[in-house]
Design a protein that fits this description.
- The protein is of the alpha/beta class and 864 residues long.
- It has seven domains: 87 residues, no CATH class; 64 residues, no CATH class; 185 residues, 3-Layer(aba) Sandwich (Rossmann fold); 224 residues, NAD(P)-binding Rossmann-like Domain (Rossmann fold); 28 residues, no CATH class; 107 residues, Orthogonal Bundle (Non-ribosomal Peptide Synthetase Peptidyl Carrier Protein, Chain A), CATH 1.10.1200.10; 75 residues, no CATH class.
- Helices cover 45% and strands 12% of the residues.
- A 15-stranded mixed β-sheet has the order 5-4-6-7-8-9-10-3-17-16-15-14-11-12-13, with helices on both faces.
- α14 packs antiparallel against α21.
- The protein is globular, with a radius of gyration of 31 Å.
- About 6% of the residues have low confidence.
């Protein structure tokens, strides 16, 4: 692959002209990596005396390693590299590499292992059968699967008339395979449901409620009706009209307003989402403004027509559903700041606004509510199995053109292959790069071999004019009959760090393109209008504050089309395996750890066909391990969303009552469990137990099986935390301590030691009348000096001359420290430079090389 062209290149073309271009033109290293990724390459080996490019490669979420390292150019380093490649799926030819080595039998005792990877989740069907015992008919169906004519004849005692089975067996085998897959995929099917909530008298509101709206909403019916209802139910209403687009100015506006309120602000109610043109952006800016202003009152967002609570409740405002997707992520990322989402009817009478006030005043965990004339309803996830025995083979494409956006991508190409196999006449594969996309020619050839005509077209589906021209170019002989919208981009970040450009980049390809496809095809007789959505939009995923809204919009648009009598199916997928767009991103790694394994494409496509055959409108297809997922989803914030899933209820019901959240949705119980028993303890004991708690939470987030695996002075980024897992850790710590922790706390205090100091000060300041709650300065243990030393050593390059002088001085200091420890307690030992040679001694330190010395310091103190 050439970094001049960012494409594969034939070695014969590497002539003088090419190398002249190589010198004169930009190095397209980043573009080349993306081309490699699109072609399925995910593992890289840099052959060099010292890695230079591996860090840049790893920025693309690929795996990279080097052959050698500076000062480590020996055989052991090369073997370490080969071992690293082996852990990523490559098998070196060991007899060639080690020709004189003899295989050695393993010892008879078991290894003491510490594993840092997850076991593959059991298939859904296996989990379902785990409680019912073995299937007595297994042998029969195994013979059918193998199409073992003789074995089946013996089983059925038809040895003399095997001919009768000759034509039956292939059909029976195919039927059983379909039923086996259907049994598995049936366990993946879920949908959104709504359950009536008790219609009780609204409890009184108190304190100041800040109602946020855009300038053109002031004085209009929704605002007047809601503000009146809030006042009538006991709240002091303050109105914030926010127009500027700069979140910092929003923060100034909010801070100035709250500074002059007569009573504390106990809640924020936003009407910004009702503005379908700018609602998502303004709501995001409001969240960021509240964060910057330090206003921790829970934020509730109001919409009208953003959800459909029943078949007779048409969804009229699909654009407002974007805020529902954003809110579901905010509930995970900003658990203590987020209040919830309430969808109101178009006509606001006194009963509807009273129910809104009841939701706001309720002391529970209903945070996704639809208020309707019949009452308030809470959103749930429910199972959606296919009804009865399924005899058909699923949906098949009719004659004409099937348009697939993202058609040359991983998901789109899988869909295209399946449609071609099912008899599609003409496939129009749309992507930004068209036939210049990697693998496009090979895909067309493969589809043609399957009997379909395939056309690849370059089109920016976010461009209304380009999309209109594309549809106009479809030949009259192959009229458009189906649409599959799989196109998407990822640009993940925490909500507090999202920029408008990141939001627009994702919405343009996903949501905007879907709406334009709807507008341009709504007068056509389509047999399918399929939208690829995501589980992120259904439940909310940390780090996907722009991707989740786009996918929530997919589901809403499908319901909106159905309400208008148009065909539509939106499928909210778990991540696909084998090259799916999100297969290697940080959020998907989080999903895997939380119990959402990747979907095999073949099974996913069969599930899609079943959804189309059943004429589903909005369906979730995801393999979810509820034992894991239920705990992860509710770790930072209780939720009723999973109440209708028996496995989730059972998993959550097994939580020890001592660690359950306090009544009323607060975390007072956990605060008391952590803080109150430590109130009378000595400062050293408090700090030790708090340190253990923090290390335990870090270990849980990173997947370690022990808190001891977490270094106390190594930066979190070095330990493996990123922007997504940092949010998870912040939420866990907030749940354990009961503190309202800022979104940046993990980056403001980037090591366990610094974070413990901060949490200790927040929890125990003044508890002993001691102005220095950690007590560290009084002990004279030299921690500040060590911290400064750590910063110095970290900042020095590995080949800096000063390291030699520092190493000599550290060697003398360590020798003194080791001798002093030995003199005080002959039993005490410290870590070893080489753990196989016993405790460190003064002689060891004297004989150690500089590299060994710094390695020892890194192991002992987390300094590198």
């Amino acid at each position: 692959y050439s970094t001049v062209t960012a494409t594969p290149i034939d070695g014969d073309t590497l002539d003088a002209e090419y190398w002249y271009r190589n010198l004169r033109e930009p190095v397209r290293f980043h573009d080349t990596l993306h081309t490699l990724q699109a072609d399925g390459h995910t593992l890289y080996l840099e052959t060099s005396p010292h890695p230079v490019l591996t860090t840049a490669i790893q920025e693309t979420n690929a795996h990279a390693t080097g052959t050698l390292r500076r000062n480590h150019g020996d055989t052991q380093q090369l073997l370490t590299t080969l071992a690293t490649l082996w852990t990523h799926g490559l098998t070196p030819n060991w007899p060639t590499i080690l020709p004189h080595s003899t295989p050695t039998n393993l010892p008879t005792y078991p290894f003491q292992r510490h594993r840092y990877w997850l076991d593959a989740a059991a298939p859904a069907r296996s989990r379902a059968n785990a409680t019912t015992g073995p299937d007595p008919h297994t042998g029969f169906w195994e013979a059918v699967e193998r199409e073992d004519l003789e074995g089946l004849a013996r089983t059925l005692r038809l040895e003399e008339s095997q001919a009768e089975l000759t034509t039956l067996l292939p059909a029976l085998s195919a039927w059983h395979r379909r039923q086996s897959v259907a049994s598995t995929t049936d366990a993946w099917r879920y949908r959104e449901g709504w359950r009536p909530l008790p219609d009780t008298t609204a409890p009184a509101l108190s304190g100041t409620w800040l109602v946020v709206l855009a300038p053109d909403q002031k004085g209009r019916a929704p605002y007047e009706a809601i503000a009146t209802a809030l006042s009538r139910h006991g709240a002091t209403v303050e109105t914030a009209v926010v127009a500027p687009d700069d979140p910092r100015r929003w923060a100034d506006t909010l801070a100035a307003l709250t500074a002059h309120t007569t009573a504390p602000v106990v809640g924020v109610l936003s009407l910004l989402a009702c503005d379908e043109a700018a609602g998502p952006h303004r709501t995001l800016r409001l969240i960021q403004g509240l964060e910057a202003a330090g206003l921790f009152a829970p934020l509730w967002c109001v919409t009208q027509g953003a959800v459909s609570a029943s078949d007779h409740d048409p969804l009229t405002g699909p654009a407002q559903a974007l805020v529902w997707g954003l809110g579901r992520v905010a509930a995970q990322e900003l658990a203590t700041r987020w209040g919830g989402l309430v969808d109101l009817p178009q006509e606001l009478d006194e009963r509807a606004t009273a129910r809104l006030c009841a939701v706001l005043a309720a002391d529970g965990h209903e945070d996704q509510v639809a208020v309707r004339a019949t009452g308030a309803l809470g959103r749930r996830i429910v199972r959606a199995p296919r009804l009865g025995d399924v005899l058909d083979d699923g949906w098949t494409p009719g004659p004409g053109t099937v348009l697939i956006t993202g058609g040359t991508g991983a998901l789109g190409s899988q869909v295209a292959r399946r449609l071609a196999a099912r008899g599609a006449e003409h496939l129009l594969l749309v992507s930004r790069r068209g036939d210049a996309a990697p693998g496009a020619d090979e895909l067309v050839a493969e589809l043609t071999t399957s009997g379909a005509r395939a056309t690849v077209a370059a089109c920016d589906v976010g461009d209304a004019g380009a999309l209109r021209a594309l549809l106009a170019s479809i030949p009259a002989a192959y009229p458009l009959t189906s649409v599959f919208h799989t196109a998407a981009v990822l640009d993940d970040a925490a909500i507090t760090a999202l920029t408008p450009e990141q939001v627009d980049r994702v919405l343009r390809v996903k949501a905007d393109a879907a709406w334009r496809l709807h507008e341009l095809t709504r007068d056509l007789e389509l047999s399918a209008f399929v939208l690829f959505s995501s589980l992120a939009g259904t439940v909310g995923m940390v780090g996907q504050g722009n991707y989740a809204p786009a996918n929530a919009y997919m589901d809403a648009l499908a319901r909106h089309r159905r309400a208008r009598g148009l065909v539509a199916t939106s499928v909210a997928w778990g991540s696909w395996a084998q090259g799916g767009m999100a297969e290697r991103d940080a959020v998907t790694e989080l999903r895997l750890r939380h119990g959402v394994p990747l979907l095999p494409p073949e099974s996913a496509l069969l599930a899609l066909e079943a959804a189309l055959a059943d004429d589903e409108t909005a369906l979730v297809i995801a393999d979810i391990d509820w034992d894991r997922f239920a705990h992860a989803y509710t770790a930072a914030r209780p939720s009723h969303l999973l109440d209708e899933i028996p496995e989730a209820r059972r998993a959550l019901g097994q939580v020890d009552a001592a660690t359950a959240p306090a009544p009323g949705g607060g975390t007072g119980g956990t605060v008391a469990a952590l803080r109150d028993p430590l109130a009378d303890a000595k400062p050293e004991e408090r700090e030790r137990r708090l340190l253990d708690a923090v290390r335990g939470q870090v270990a849980a987030v990173l997947g370690h099986d022990s808190a001891e695996a977490v270094g106390t002075r190594r930066p979190f980024l070095e330990l493996g935390l990123d922007s997504v897992t940092a949010v998870e850790l912040r939420n866990r710590l907030g749940n354990v301590t009961g503190l309202r922790l800022p979104a940046t706390v993990i980056f403001d205090f980037p090591t366990v030691t610094e974070l413990v100091d901060y949490l200790y000060a927040q929890l125990f300041t003044g508890i002993d009348g001691d102005p220095n709650p950690t007590g560290r300065a009084a002990t004279g243990d030299g921690t500040p000096e060590l911290d400064r030393l750590e910063q110095l050593v970290v900042s020095l390059p590995s080949d800096a001359p000063a390291r030699s002088e520092i190493a000599d001085r550290l060697r003398r200091l360590l020798r003194s420290a080791v001798d002093a420890v030995d003199a005080v307690d002959s039993v005490a030992t410290v870590d070893t430079v080489d753990t196989t040679d016993g405790p460190v001694t003064s002689d060891d330190l004297e004989a150690a090389t500089n590299d060994e010395l710094f390695d020892y310091i890194e192991k002992e103190f987390g300094i590198s």
